[in-house]
Amino acid sequence: MEKNGNNRKLRVCVATCNRADYSKLAPIMFGIKTEPAFFELDVVVLGSHLIDDYGNTYRMIEQDDFDINTRLHTIVRGEDEAAMVESVGLALVKLPDVLNRLKPDIMIVHGDRFDALALATSAALMNIRILHIEGGEVSGTIDDSIRHAITKLAHYHVCCTRSAEQHLISMCEDHDRILLAGCPSYDKLLSAKNKDYMSIIRMWLGDDVKCKDYIVALQHPVTTDIKHSIKMFELTLDALISFNKRTLVLFPNIDAGSKEMVRVMRKKGIEHHPNFRAVKHVPFDQFIQLVAHAGCMIGNSSCGVREVGAFGTPVINLGTRQIGRETGENVLHVRDADTQDKILQALHLQFGKQYPCSKIYGDGNAVPRILKFLKSIDLQEPLQKKFCFPPVKENISQDIDHILETLSALAVDLGGTNLRVAIVSMKGEIVKKYTQFNPKTYEERISLILQMCVEAAAEAVKLNCRILGVGIGGGIIHQHELIHGSSFCAAELGHLVVSLDGPDCSCGSHGCIEAYASGMALQREAKKLHDEDLLLVEGMSVPKDEPVGALHLIQAAKLGNVKAQNILRTAGTALGLGVVNILHTMNPSLVILSGVLASHYIHIVKDVIRQQALSSVQDVDVVVSDLVDPALLGAASMVLDYTTRRIH
After folding, report:
1. Rounded distance between C-alpha atoms, residue 157 and residue 370, angstroms
2. SS3 147
3. Which of 155, 172, 393, 481 could be disulfide-bonded to 387 (CB atoms 3.0-4.6 Å)?
4. Nearest to 518 by CA among 487, 473, 563, 475
5. Could you tell me the CA-to-CA distances from 561 to 533, 552, 602 in Å, in that order?
6. DSSP tag of 252
């Protein structure tokens, strides 16, 4: 047996407030009752069920053979806004004792009525799980606000349409706790039309009434615009009198404004008019037959836009009360009217038509799905519900861990002899530096760089440094900000081409500045000279276990090695031509050369500028950086400038 993570039955409390919600809850109650091995059912009745003026509809619950555990008189009469508020307050006062006595595992609440809000509030505050039926729908009045408020209090949701399901997800409800089941009342609707309906029609409308030759009218007050809704009701009755068809008029619900609507009915003599039958309540089974075989239904009840579509009966929906509901093609809306004419025209258009049956709100199998959903509820799960909020911007409130940590970057320097990675702080301090010999192949270099970055990032955690990114490369500063480019590849200065037939570059091209002037390029040239015994001069020596590098080439040039001097001059000239190209493109005010080779190149670069550059840029300042490890600091600044500029 499925026992919801427990070794006992699930105790379910179903609370019903009025005739409308009972029509949706009754099929679920019957389903629960048929499975006594899994469920214990407690029924609580409150609201207008217990008022004579609204038909004492609690009797139909008894006729359905349900034991009513508790009757709560919660309605404060007055039928105005204040009475609705007082009724909610009265229910909140009375419900705690009931819930303490029943101790349900879960309470099933339906819809969007003010009574239901009191039920959900009480259950939520008393740590009772709530299953909400028909959440996520949109109608257009205060009911929307109440329905969505109940949704936020509820732990589980049974919705009727795909759109309602999406609305619940958009409201940040947990998708795993949402069941798209369809409307429970459809389980009865879709199997009801073949019953003996003529006897029911005659009982409520008279022996002389034929199928499809009468109207069902059901109109409620709109609590957000009571005055206008009463005016619409008056116009509706005028149109129905003029239309001259037998009409069954049901009394409105107990919302604010209902008393005024009843006065309008009596003022127009509806209760004594030969074409009208005015009733407080019709049992749901009989009501189904009446709307299924009517020539038209008119009003603003949710039943008109929901249940009646299952039969294809024409519907005229009046005003704004159901303005947001999903409807079938059988519904014709009359949003507003100044006279009866528009409503009368709608009656002429709709009466007697037959539309395709709609299954927007269900397929007749809602109850089995709901029972299965109830069985799946694990009472051992935490009661506190979670909301699935979408991603939002980083919280700008402060956290002590963020205050104490150091915003940093990983800087990578690809030297000719060594690869270097450093953790560099926002203040430009090198927190820690890692150095490894530069491997021979490209694949080995990339693998080593990744390994060094991973090691540095792991060490950064221990050092309480938050790594914002990894930087590699030179840079161009414009108006005090680094230029990053559309794909963060701006200022790849080392790959400016300065010769069409120059040496191969590691980038795959040839003739780049880097192919001439980088540490790796000079190391390559030094090795060639050394292999030909043309590198070493008097006063020089290279230990056998030490790789030949750029520093050996520089040393040889200083000691008078002409070939070494020519290589450095060619490298400096290539760098100078690249700088000239930058001067002609960007017209900077300052050129800073950095790295161990900068001091050896600066004079050659200045000579090339004087010889090759336009006169308009020849006065540019060219200097050598006096920073320690400028290559690492420059690489780090690429990250730190970009990320902090956008955070702050």
Report:
1. 10
2. helix
3. 172
4. 473
5. 12, 11, 20
6. P
Distance CA(116)–CA(5), nearest Å, equals 28
Residue with structure tokens 């301090």? Answer: 429
Q: Which amino acid is located at 292 in the chain?
A: A
Residue 504: strand pairing partners: 510
507 marked among binding-site residues: yes
- What confidence category does residue 647 fall into, taking pLDDT thresholds of 50, 70 and 90? very low
Q: Of 331, 334, 335, 333, which Cα lies nearest the Cα of 358?
A: 331
Q: Rounded CA gap, 6 and 8, in Å?
A: 6
Contact 12, 41 (CB under 8 A): yes
The two tokens of residue 495 are 């790959």
In 3D, which of 185, 186, 156, 181 has the Cα closest to residue 168?
156
Q: Which two tokens stand for residue 16?
A: 């019903």
Name beta bridge partners: 402: none
User: For 346, phi and psi rounded to 5 degrees?
Assistant: -60, -40
pLDDT band at 648 (very low <50, low <70, confident <90, very high): very low
Q: Is the dihedral of CA 279, 282, 288, 293 positive or negative?
A: negative
Domains of the chain: residue spans and CATH: 10-183+364-376 (3.40.50.2000), 190-350 (3.40.50.2000), 402-463 (3.30.420.40), 476-645 (3.30.420.40)
Tell me the three state secondary structure of residue 70: strand
Cα–Cα–Cα angle for 348, 212, 57, rounded to 5 degrees: 105
pTM of the entire predicted model: 0.59
Confirm whether residue 293 is marked as ligand binding.
no
**How many residues does the structure list for the chain?**
648
Is 453 marked as binding a ligand?
A: no
Least confident of 238-252, 536-550, 561-575: 536-550
Residues 511 and 501: their CA atoms lie apart, in Å, by: 6
